Amino acid sequence: MKRRTLLTFAASAVLLAACSQSNTPNQDAGADNSAVEGSSELLNRINNGEAIHVGTEGTYPPFTYHDVDGKLTGYDVEVTKAVADKLGVPVEFNETQWDAMLAGLDAQRFDMVANQVSLTTPERQAKYDKVTPYSWSGAVVLAPKEDSRFSAWDNLKGLRSAQSLSSNYGELAEQYEAEIVPVEGMAQAIELVKQGRADFTLNDRLAVLDYLKKHPESGLEIKLVAPASEQRGSGLILLKGNDEVVTKLNDAMQQLQEDGTLTRLSEQFFGQDISQQQ
């Protein structure tokens, strides 16, 4: 209830103020209790060995997709399954479009999200918690293996970079004073580099690793990787208020790192360990 001041009725003002003060603690307590109850409900289910419900896209290879047999798989999916195994609970995936994923989490249609979410904005960081990242990515330089001009990022100056003009990687190439060769997307950029019509292209490390794994005879390789301070980590995402659950998930993720599971899954889907910062 908002406190209103009625200048012509002093007594009414006092009465309304009193009502406001008496109602506010009850409203706040109700909101806090709701958050605690939501957290306790998920924690109790995990402690009782009941299923956790995870939102994912199912159409975003190699992170979350359906294989030739129609089975849901992918790096994020298999990591989530491994986490559930450590917790001793089954996992049920709820496939949804990317645009509706966080809204589904808000509505508690599932308990968490596994879909390469980084929480890069202050708004999302204030609303959601992220478990210890299971993948790290950032900008990389992709160029022909025989090209030896890429010993440092400053060496990009004056070289031809195949980039989409609207992408942040195009902006990064411009920052390094590269000559931009406009393209419509990553596939076209790679072709121009292979044809010698561009010297290199900048793109996301995980996307490039996925390409190199699928095209081992491309003649291209990663020359430069963004420093650790510029890399972003992706992990399981939960609504705020699940601190004890986040602790359990972090413990499980640490076990997966220590027993080599994250490294094995990384190499399975990307040919390289993406679970740690470079």
Task: Note down, in words, how this protein is organized.
- 43% of the residues lie in helices and 19% in strands.
- It is an alpha/beta fold and 278 residues long.
- The protein has a three-stranded parallel sheet. A three-stranded antiparallel sheet has the order 11-8-12. Strands 2-3 form a two-stranded antiparallel ribbon.
- Helix 2 crosses helix 8.
- The radius of gyration is 24 Å and the shape is elongated.
Tags for this entry?
278 residues, alpha/beta, D-Maltodextrin-Binding Protein, domain 2, three-stranded parallel sheet, 43% helix
Topology, element by element:
Blueprint: H1 10-47, E1 52-56, E2 65-66, E3 72-73, H2 75-87, E4 91-95, H3 98-106, E5 112-113, H4 122-127, E6 128-130, E7 135-137, E8 139-144, E9 160-163, H5 168-175, E10 179-182, H6 186-195, E11 201-204, H7 205-214, E12 220-225, E13 232-234, E14 237-239, H8 243-258, H9 261-270
Parallel strand pairs: 1-4, 1-5, 9-10
Antiparallel strand pairs: 2-3, 6-14, 7-13, 8-11, 8-12
Helix pairs in contact: 2-8, 2-9
